[in-house]
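Sequence design from tokenized structure. All designs in this work follow the same two-part layout: the structure record, then the generated sequence. An example of the structure record is given first.
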């Protein structure tokens, strides 16, 4: 924490502190130059997205040090953790750029006035920012939510089209986040929280499921549907 009266951290880091003293107290940096001038980010609380943002001058001395919600997304999943997750009618893909996307079939009818998308079946799509609080847990923060038409691709699979329509999901808002906690059987439990950390109740199979989501290698029909 920062002492607002002294403009220094409780560890007495502040303007003029050396890079070596900051590294010794805050640990390994997660972004920024290894030496010299620039912004360097250190982990404060990975689960809460908190980090120390430190600006150094060319001599490696602190110019500014602030605690902020600026933890960069982690692109590295724990060893052995699946990037693909599924349950009945839904697929979640963890990409290698710190993002994820879920696509859920709505099974809505087609035709005017029936909730269709471009006269095609709709899918409910959510984009996420991914962070990795622990070796068995992902935090997926919702960055966008919308409907898109499902179209047949050349390889015969169903993909989402380019058109976007307003989301009809009233239970999950942008800024909410899921935790995805891998269990001993290789599948995972999901829990939804509001942006301020309050647990939310959702309908079964809404968003990322309630509460199970399965990896393709360990799919359990009793937990995630056929």
């Amino acid at each position: 924490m920062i002492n607002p009266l002294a403009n220094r951290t409780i560890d007495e880091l502040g303007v003029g502190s050396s890079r070596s003293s900051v590294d010794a107290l805050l640990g390994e940096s997660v972004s920024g130059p290894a030496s010299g001038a620039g912004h360097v980010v250190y982990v404060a609380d990975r689960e809460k997205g908190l980090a120390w943002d430190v600006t150094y001058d060319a001599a490696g001395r602190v110019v500014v040090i602030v605690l902020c919600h600026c933890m960069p997304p982690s692109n590295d999943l724990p060893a052995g953790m699946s990037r693909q997750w599924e349950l009945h009618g839904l697929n979640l893909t963890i990409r290698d750029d710190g993002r994820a996307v879920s696509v859920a079939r709505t099974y809505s009818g087609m035709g005017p006035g029936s909730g269709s998308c471009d006269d095609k079946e709709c899918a409910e799509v959510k984009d996420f920012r991914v962070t990795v609080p622990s070796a068995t847990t992902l935090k997926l923060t919702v960055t966008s939510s919308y409907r898109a038409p499902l179209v047949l691709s050349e390889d015969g699979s169903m993909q989402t089209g380019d058109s976007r329509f307003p989301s009809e999901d009233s239970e999950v808002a942008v800024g909410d986040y899921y935790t995805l906690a891998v269990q001993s059987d290789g599948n995972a439990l999901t829990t939804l929280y509001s942006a301020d950390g309050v647990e939310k109740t959702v309908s079964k199979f809404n968003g990322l499921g309630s509460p199970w989501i399965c990896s393709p290698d360990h799919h359990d029909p009793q937990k995630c549907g056929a």
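Residues 19-26 form the longest helix (8 residues). We note this feature because it recurs in several other targets discussed in the main text.
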